[in-house]
Amino acid sequence: MNGTLAPKSLGDILSETFSIYKKNFLRFAAIVAIVAVPFAVLGAVVNLLFPAYGEGATDAMSMAMIKIPFYLAFVVAFILMTGAIIHAMAEQYFNQPVNIARAYKFAWHRLRDMFWAMVLYCLAIGGIFATAILMSIIVYLIIAPTIGGISDRLIAFTISGTMIFLAAPAAVYLGIIWNFVVQTALLEGCGPTAALSRSWALVKGSWWRVLGIVLLLSTIMTIIYMILDTPTIMETITQFTSGAITGPPTWVMIWRPIGVLIGNIIGFTIYTIGETLLYFDLRVRKEGYSLDALADELGLPSTTTDAVA
């Protein structure tokens, strides 16, 4: 048995991403559907029963009480689904069919670490912007009262806005350096803080390459979502140009969660496969990562590692 994995170029990652997706499309679709279909249906029902616009619109407080628990549950389920996709994608390297139940079971056992790793990730990124916004407000409040005139106030606003703009590079840097927290928590069993440190160690020295590939995968995913959201976008443009902004009609509220479902099955799955292949590539280049190591992390017997190279 050849248990080695080879480094991959950008072309290799893209080619293998679409090959894996095509070969296991129905299984990946089922993995996504298990989580996404119930939330798509529930989302459509919530939008219909509690409209945010137009006649009978739900007040902001009631909307928050309804949608915050909904979105929190969705985030947790989405992380679980992501873990199942990664497990299924990794499992296809071995001579056995992808097992959906096993993928979800594996992801379930690592859900807590994946969830809290993502919480730390979001708090760190969000904290950068929150700090920049707070500092910009303080700067504006200090400077603006001491100067007069619209032009001078514009200068104060520009200074405070620049601080927010300067926070973006730091957020992007950390976003890429911690890009693989889900993979490290799921496959390597890292705790939340260890997952961030592990991702940092893997990306170190390859930041620009990781940025480029992640941006390309994100662009592919975004284009797919935008194509599926075209009816909603066109309806919004129509209302805006006509001056009659009444909010989305019923068919848009029904289509939107359906479009998101299809986008998750196609766009998000493709992105996750490509991202995980990049994660494997970093481990191969830094550690000589092998199929035996992958089988051990997945809890598979090493005798099954007749590779799908």
Count all strands and give the number. Answer: 0
Which shape, going by the Cα principal axes? Answer: globular
Please give the share of residues in helix: over 70%
For the record, give the distance between the C-alpha atoms at the N and C termini, rounded to a whole number. Answer: 11 Å
SSE pattern: HHHHHHHHHHHH
What's the overall average pLDDT, rounded? 83
Low-confidence stretches: none
- Content of β-strand: under 5%
How many helical elements?
Answer: 12
Structural class: mainly alpha
Radius of gyration: 23 Å
Largest sheet: none
Chain-wise SSE layout:
Layout: H1 10-23, H2 25-49, H3 60-91, H4 100-109, H5 111-143, H6 150-177, H7 181-187, H8 192-203, H9 207-228, H10 230-242, H11 250-287, H12 291-298
Helix pairs in contact: 1-11, 2-3, 2-11, 3-4, 3-7, 3-11, 5-6, 5-7, 5-8, 7-8, 9-11
Structure in words:
With 309 residues, the chain is mostly helical. The protein has a domain at 10-111 and 193-304. 78% of the residues lie in helices and 0% in strands. It has twelve helices and no strands. It has helices at 10-23, 25-49, 60-91, 100-109, 111-143, 150-177, 181-187, 192-203, 207-228, 230-242, 250-287, 291-298. α2 (25-49) packs antiparallel against α11, α3 crosses α4 (100-109) and α9 (207-228) runs antiparallel to α11. The protein is globular, with a radius of gyration of 23 Å. The termini are close together.
